[in-house]
Amino acid sequence: MRWAPPESRSRYAIRDHFEANPDPVTDHQEIAFLSTCYDFPWDTQHALELALFRVFGIAKGTPLLVQTGEFLQRPQKRYDDTVLILSEMLENGYDSERGRAALRRMNRQHGRYAIPNDEYLYTLSTFIFEPIR
Fold first, then answer.
1. What's the predicted TM-score (pTM) here?
2. Does the N terminus or the C terminus of the chain have fewer Cβ atoms within 10 A?
3. For residue 32, which of 14, 49, 50 has the smallest C-alpha distance?
4. What whole-number distance in Å separates Cα of residue 56 and Cα of residue 24?
5. What is the C-alpha separation between 5 and 17, in angstroms, rounded?
6. 15 exposure class (CB count in 10 Å sphere: 0-12, 13-18, 19+)
């Protein structure tokens, strides 16, 4: 693991960890890690669940998901694979060796299909906007 949570378990430990304001340019990966894994783990888990459900039910990529059988025949595997790949990038940083390997794997898995960029953006946006909605 690239980052570790603050040793203190106080309510403000993560906030205090940065001593002042975190720099979003240099600290963005650590901020994402601490926010998703320590501040909001429940929300993060359910964001993934909602995102996958929303993409299958709404997105114009649904015919491809039906064709591959990923959601109909192997929904738990699809969920687990997504969690593993995203966790590698989140916990180790997308610029670490493990994070880059996970990103390559994800791109290889999706690269077999003609998925328009707006579908990728839609899917990523569901991780943020669906739990809020």
1. 0.79
2. C
3. 14
4. 32
5. 9
6. middle
